[in-house]
Write a structure and sequence with these properties.
By secondary structure, the protein is α/β, with parallel strands linked by helices. 32% of the residues lie in helices and 24% in strands. Helix 4 packs across helix 9.
Length: 341
């Protein structure tokens, strides 16, 4: 028996990627519905190589005949509609920030804490972590199991696709405008993004950190281990797709770079590309369209007793959002729906 699936926010960057991933992985769905606001009703989105879905109205949709709903419409929309869907018996996998830190909602990266999926029964909602958190904890998990992580310091280099269609258009138009002497104002960012980097993602908080940095800190603790100390600086860079992170890790017990390389190479969801030569690493441009979290530049940090530096790269629309949500759905139907039937 196939499942009935809805994708909420199907016209956005992540929603379209969710539909693409569902089709690529041949998810066992008898019916897939694309949902968005009334402004998008009737628009067409691709599902696989040949199929096209017409967008239906989220506000009037009846979730009682739907098994799974993948949400990526923005936190305010999820706040209203995700509980509505969950109350009908539909299980929601939400990609927004709305439910991530709620104690009775599991926050899941399948390669890291798949057993937490069982907690979905409390509210019929599972939260997808922040894109930058997902790729970092995927890389940290096998190392934490081997030597126990004490502290993490991370600087991110995050692509504009994480801010949506309009942000991608802004980067394109500003870049083109510079060559044509046609200045374009910054609308989606606090400064010009073309040929620039901006150390500001989401809103500022009272302690001087941004909400994006707070997310990385608190989500890492919830997913991986509350005892880990995390310091994050999140930066937007003029890249269309693909997030990169420079990660410094301090451990409680010995682990050297060769051990780390072997551990990471055998871990699920990770591809180690670490050659000490020109091009012996992965860049955001190279990771686009790939499912893996790539780890490069693995080397010891001699400033602490047990320390390593890592370069971690992933497609933020895939593993950082859509793929992770679909992987959760796959585990859900394999390990929980089947037994409940």
């Amino acid at each position: 028996m196939g499942f009935r699936v809805a994708v909420v926010g199907a016209t956005g960057n992540v929603g379209r990627e969710m539909l693409k991933v569902l089709a690529e992985r041949d998810f066992p769905a008898d019916r897939v519905v694309g949902l968005a606001s009334s402004r998008s009703v009737g628009k067409e989105v691709s599902f696989g190589d040949d199929a096209v879905l017409k967008i239906a109205d989220l506000d009037s949709f009846d979730f009682s005949e739907t098994d799974l709903a993948l949400f990526s419409p923005g936190a305010r929309v999820s706040e209203k509609y995700a509980p509505r869907a969950a109350d009908t018996g539909c299980v929601v996998i939400d990609n927004t920030s709305k439910f991530r830190m709620e104690p009775d909602v599991p926050l899941v990266v399948p390669e890291v804490n798949d057993l937490a999926i069982a907690e979905y029964r409390a509210r019929n909602i599972i939260a997808n972590p922040n894109c930058s958190t997902i790729q970092m904890v995927t890389a940290l998990k096998p190392l934490h199991d081997a030597a126990t992580i004490k502290r993490v310091v991370v600087a991110t280099y995050q692509s504009v696709s994480g801010a949506g269609h309009e942000a991608m258009d802004e980067l394109f138009n500003q870049t083109k405008g510079i060559y044509l002497n046609d200045t374009r104002d910054s609308v989606n960012f606090t400064a010009q993004i073309a040929f620039n980097v901006i150390p500001h993602i989401d809103v500022f908080m009272d302690d001087g950190s941004t909400k994006e940095e707070w997310k990385m800190i608190e989500e890492t603790k919830k997913i991986l281990d509350p005892a880990i100390e995390v310091s994050a600086t999140c930066v937007r860079v003029p890249v269309f797709i693909g997030h990169a992170e420079a990660v410094n890790v301090e451990f409680e017990s010995p682990i050297d770079e060769d051990q780390a390389r072997d551990i990471l190479a055998s871990a699920p969801g990770i591809n180690v590309v670490d050659r000490r030569m020109d091009g012996g690493y992965i860049t955001p441009y190279q990771c686009v369209g790939d499912d893996a979290v790539f780890v490069s530049r693995i080397r010891s940090d001699p400033t602490v007793p047990y320390g390593l530096n890592l370069w971690v790269v992933s497609d933020n629309l895939r593993k950082g959002a859509a793929l992770n949500a679909v992987q959760i759905a796959e585990r859900l139907i394999q390990d929980y729906f089947r037994h409940a039937a």
